[in-house]
Amino acid sequence: MTQTTNKSLRVAAMGMDKQTQKLLEMVFNGPGRGDYVLVEQPDIAEACIFDLDGMDASKLWTKYRVQHPQLPTIILSITLQDVAGNLFVKKPIEIDKLLKSLGKIKQMKEEEVATGELPHLMVKSHAGHLSSTQTTRTAKLSSEIAVEEEEEAFHQFCGYNADINPDRSDEVEKIYYEPTNYLQGFFEKAYSISLQLDSGGILVEGLYTPMILSAERNQLFCGCDSTENQLRTMTLLPLSKSSHLRMTTLSEAEIQQRLAVGKLAAQPLDSFLWKMALWTSRGKVPKGTDLSKNIVLLHWPNFTRLIVTPHALEISALWIAQPQSLLDTAKLLDIPQRYVFSFFSATCAIKLAFIDRRLDKRPGSLTITSPDNTKRGLFKRLLARLLGQE
Amino acid sequence: MSQYKLIFTGPTGAGKTTAIATLSEIPVVKTEAKSSYRNPRHEHKETITVGLDYGLVKLKNNDKIHLYGTPGQERFDFMWEILTEGGLGLILLIDNTRVAPLEDLQFFLKAFDDFIKETSVAIGVTRMDLNHKPALADYHRELRTLGINPPIFDVDARSKKDVSLLLQALLYSLDPNLKVER
Ligand SMILES: Nc1nc2c(ncn2[C@@H]2O[C@H](COP(=O)(O)OP(=O)(O)O)[C@@H](O)[C@H]2O)c(=O)[nH]1
Ligand SMILES: [Mg+2]
Questions:
Q1: Predicted-complex ipTM score
Q2: Between B89 and which of A73, A114, A311, B119 could a Cys-Cys bridge form, CB atoms 3.0 to 4.6 Å apart?
């Protein structure tokens, strides 16, 4: 598969469907290259990634645990699997988390070697009878699992980044990402081209399923068997130069032809691009975004059909009434910067917002002008009521 | 305890009654509003009665928000000025399956022009599931020529979430600085 370097951790993949296997290969050949290598058999592996959602997974698991009671294992599943002594990565697979989990195992292995414990001791023990190595691991890992599970609802869209100090360039660097390094950039390009077309659309190939974008109809067609989870994992994976993504323009007749042949499901294109931008940016903004220039929001996003991230409505109302810079928006509304950043990235992706490059923001007093403050209390109560907090 | 009102308007069939019902704590009732006006074709004043949809939201501190749905018929438009007096804001629902939804949009925005200038409007385009043209982009173009930029969403009046988002957007338009204390 890939050349093995001495220090690469040998990892086996078990119970996986073809698509998940493919994703793992991309991770191992991409960001995990050099540190980890996929091997075919658990017998020669130092760790294992086990998909508990696969066919016959529980049978396979029982057998696997009898044969390899000591092998450090990362469990993949859509639902929380708290199996003592194993790391858990919730699907959709986040590359960061998977790499973090692999990193923990690697570190543990290295520590074990350093302290003289034999990492490859293949004790044929009965399930439930744990060796001392296994017991130490269990204790170490279960505390990790608790932390991993502290997921807030919007983490996958807005990340966890703390507010940055704009005067510190090292902090400012951290909030940028380059959309063109990800699937997002590729799709934005396809979207731009599709916008130029009078009719027809763009065919995207090279993903796990072909997709057709039509800006004119605001629709994206893709294979019925594709799932959101697969897509999300793909969006988090940096595009390598070797990725085989292609786009081709299709005439309206060609689109019709393809729709007639294959089972393709349609979804609104703007919602798709919006979601993809949130997944990819996770609280960051596209590289080059000026944090202190005003934002132009062309109009309100169609919030009933888009993911509404925290404070998105307030930010929209403010930008429509009184354009602000990203940093001042967070300050004025007194909200975490990452919510302003992720909302901006999403609106950018559907070409609804951009930076007003014309003029520098005039320094002035930072206040929100609202015409009639006497009803604020009432509005707040009604809002709380609508949000189910009263 | 104070009394406030929110106005729902739009053509017949746009989902006003349905939207009010998703928000109201009481079953929506028809209520009557009487008004006297001078019919230009007659010498004397006339009193006429129109049916309004009525719903209610009660807040914790006993403030009441009355939800009024206007009758869709255009012949009652003289009523609207009286009805909107003291209102908090306007929810305009447009039925996308009608013959000329963009003309409906123009008509209602014009009819409620003064009220909108005083307060704010949020627009829900309903029945887009049945008819997707005109698209929201067409509405945006229309609104641009009218020189306003209000929230406008694809709304299913039967969806509580949609109607709630529309009303939230109206509130933030009225005052972007509405931090909800938790
Ligand atoms: N399919 C569909 N039906 C809707 C939608 N919004 C409202 N309706 C239906 O349209 C009908 C008319 O709604 P109604 O509230 O009586 O309209 P009103 O005349 O403005 O009060 C009702 O049967 C609603 O359930 C929508 O977005 N899609
Ligand atoms: Mg009605």
A1: 0.91
A2: B119
